[in-house]
Amino acid sequence: CLHKRVDTFCTVVDSHYIAADFKMTRVDFYFNAESKLQLACKIAAKAFRQQIRVLVFAPDEIVARTLNRLMWTTPPVGFLPHCLASDPIATRTPVLISADTAATPHNDLLLNLDRNPPPSFGRFLRLIEIVSRDDATDIQAARTRFRYYKDRGYSLAHHDLMKAGSGMRNE
């Protein structure tokens, strides 16, 4: 249950906790990222190879368009099928970029590129937060998001990209 265990949601009925049929969102923080957008591309590519659908939450239009262009060249060999959520082929595309978390028909992976917790993130199985290495404002915003998720009982994991074996090293 939410008050004891972070893996499942619970509801209270007549003072009894009843586990629901769905799991709480797992939240992963990847910190010390050299480039948030490059890492977002790597994570999206890895998810695609694992047949996991991705929504990249990028409410800043400049960030969304920059990421869209970057995904055409990352990975350097291969192709990462992606588009903006407003594109007519969005329903058939495994990686979407959007300013609206409700704009996707799936709930696999949400990758947040905003400084705030994304709206409706709880409907996704997993949420990934990327924290830059050198941007003090981004680091402070990430700490605030971390506390926000922790205070609500979400399962949190953190991955230091500066350490060997983190799985997503800066390259």
Tell me, rounded to a whole number, the average pLDDT: 85
**Order of H and E elements:** EEEHEHEEEEHE
Structural class by secondary-structure content: alpha/beta
N-to-C span? 40 Å
- Provide the β-strand percentage band: 25-35%
Question: What's the quaternary structure here?
Answer: single chain
Residue runs with pLDDT of under 50 for 5 or more positions = 1-20
Number of strands: 9
Let me know the largest β-sheet: 7 strands, parallel
Number of helical runs? Answer: 3
Shape: globular
Major beta sheet, strand line-up: 5-6-4-7-8-3-9
Which range best describes the helical content: under 10%, 10-25%, 25-40%, 40-55%, 55-70% or over 70%? 10-25%
Q: Report the C-alpha radius of gyration, rounded.
A: 16 Å
Quick summary of this structure?
By secondary structure, the protein is of the alpha/beta class.
Strand and helix map with partners:
Blueprint: E1 8-13, E2 16-23, E3 26-33, H1 36-49, E4 54-57, H2 61-71, E5 82-84, E6 95-98, E7 109-112, E8 126-132, H3 136-151, E9 155-160
Parallel strand pairs: 3-8, 3-9, 4-6, 4-7, 5-6, 7-8
Antiparallel strand pairs: 1-2
Helix pairs in contact: 1-2
Q: How would you describe the overall organization of this protein?
A:
Helices cover 24% and strands 29% of the residues. It has 171 residues and is of the alpha/beta class. Helix 1 crosses helix 2. The longest helix is centred in the C-terminal third of the chain and has 16 residues, at 136-151. The protein has a 7-stranded parallel β-sheet, sandwiched between helices. Strands 1-2 form a two-stranded antiparallel ribbon. The protein has helices spanning 36-49, 61-71, 136-151, and strands spanning 8-13, 16-23, 26-33, 54-57, 82-84, 95-98, 109-112, 126-132, 155-160. The N and C termini lie far apart (40 Å). The chain is globular, with a radius of gyration of 16 Å.
